[in-house]
Design a protein that fits this description.
This protein has 174 residues and is of the alpha+beta class. Helix content is 39%, strand content 22%. A hairpin with a 2-residue loop joins strand 1 and strand 2. It is globular, with a radius of gyration of 22 Å. The N terminus is likely disordered.
């Protein structure tokens, strides 16, 4: 708490008042603290569940082709990608951040949804937990080749195994 006075640099009881720059820094720190708090693991896990529930209602599980952009579970390590803390171990907040980043960067004609791996197909689980899977859905994904072509155009600097790590064809089988 900073005491008030008439001038920005006046002293009250030996304390210098905060300048506007210092006040802005304090506000930015407080905002970061709130953002980190809401990016906490329980919040991120709940948000992922909400997004996956919404995503499940936005797609048809009829065997259609989609591009799988990400697939992770809490605690997974991916040496090719970096988590928010600089490590290669992804926690719930990292998975949420990755999904939201992919969603924001998607072309306008592409719907990006989050699903659980237990929502479709083989219903894969790892260590008893589903994977959080980010999918791109487009009307022109009529075949595996169409998805592969889109992935190659979207990520021209990446190929082979590295491309499959960030964009690969998948089917939304019932």
């Amino acid at each position: 708490i900073v005491p008030r006075a008439d001038g920005p640099r006046e002293r009250i009881m030996g304390m210098r008042l905060a300048t506007s720059v210092e006040r802005r820094r304090r506000i930015r720190r407080a905002v970061r603290h709130v953002e980190l708090r809401f990016r906490s693991e329980p919040h991120a896990q709940m948000k992922l569940a909400e997004l996956a529930d919404t995503g499940r209602g936005q797609v048809s599980f009829d065997g259609r082709w989609v591009a799988q952009l990400a697939s992770k579970y809490d605690g997974v390590t991916d040496q090719q990608l970096t988590a928010m803390n600089g490590s290669h171990t992804f926690r719930f907040p990292d998975i949420l951040n990755e999904h939201q980043t992919l969603q924001r960067s998607a072309p306008p004609d592409t719907q990006v949804v989050l699903l659980r791996s237990t929502d479709y197909g083989k219903r894969t689980v790892v260590n008893g937990q589903p994977l959080w899977v980010t999918m791109a859905v487009r009307a022109d994904f009529t075949s595996e080749a169409a998805v592969q072509s889109w992935c190659a155009q979207r990520y021209p600097a990446v190929s082979g195994k590295d491309l499959k790590n960030i964009c690969m064809p998948n089917r939304l089988a019932p």
